TrEMBL record:
Annotated GO CC locations: voltage-gated potassium channel complex
GO terms of biological process kind: action potential
Full protein name: Voltage-gated potassium channel
UniProt keywords, alphabetically: Ion channel, Ion transport, Membrane, Potassium, Potassium channel, Potassium transport, Transmembrane, Transmembrane helix, Transport, Voltage-gated channel
Organism this protein belongs to: Anaerobacterium chartisolvens
Pfam families per UniProt: Ion_trans
A single GO molecular function term of this UniProt record: voltage-gated potassium channel activity
Entry's transmembrane regions: 30-48, 55-75, 95-116, 153-174, 186-204, 211-236
InterPro entries: Ion_trans_dom, VG_K_chnl, Volt_channel_dom_sf
Amino acid sequence: MVIVKGIISMRKRIYEIVDIAKKTDKSSSIYDYTMLLIIVASIVPVCFKTSNVLFIWIDRITVLAFILDYIFRWVTADFKFKDKGAKSFLLYPFTPFAIIDLLSILPSLTALNMGFKLFRLLRLNKVFKVLKILRYSKSFDLILNVIMKEKQALLAVCYLAGGYISLSALIMFSVEPDSFNSFFDAIYWAVVTLTTVGYGDIYPVSNLGRIFGMVSSFMGIAIVALPTGIITAGYMNELNRSDNKSNR
C-alpha cells in the first residue's frame, strides 16, 4: 500500500509539473520555460535546407525530450480527465495537443524512417513542432474560451460565408463560363474574393462579371469583419474577467 500511494503521489506531482503551471510552483515554471526553449531549438534545423552534425544532434535531443513529455502526460492522463478513470489513458492520445505532439515526434524517429517509406513522408510534419508552443500560451487558451463561448455566433457567420461563397461561385460560373475550367475554380475565386486576397490568377473579363466581382469584394469585407469583431469583443471580455479575478 505504501508503494502504491508513493507511485500515485509521484504521478500526481509529475502531472502538476508538466500540466499545471502555477506561479508559486517553481518546478512547473522551470519545466514550461525549458520545454519552450527545446521547442524553439527543434525548429532551427527545419529553417535550413541543408543538414549537419549539429542539427542532427539537436533533432535527436529535442525529440527525446518530446517523447518523455508525451509519456509524462500520457501516464498522468487520469489526473487530467478526473471523471473518466482508466478510460483517460485511451482518450488522451486522441486529444488535439496529443496528436500534435505525436506528429512532431514521428518524423524524427530515424529508425522508422529507414524502414518504412510512409514515415519518410512524415518528415514534412516537423512543422507541427511550432504548434507545441500553443500549449504554453495563455493567450491561446483565452482565444479558445472565446471561440467556445461565441461558437453559435461564429457558426452563423460561417454559414453566411459558406452560402455567399456558393452563391457567388454559381453566379460567376454562369456569367463567366470561359474564365473558369470547373466549378471548383469558381469556388476558389469566390473564396479569394471574399477574403479580399485577390491573387489575380483567375478573374472576370466581361463587364457584368467585373461588376459582380466588385460587389462581391465589398460584401466580402463585411462578412470577414463579422468574426473578427465577435472574437475581439469576446477576447476583451475574457481579459476583463481575468483582471477582475486577479484583483479580488
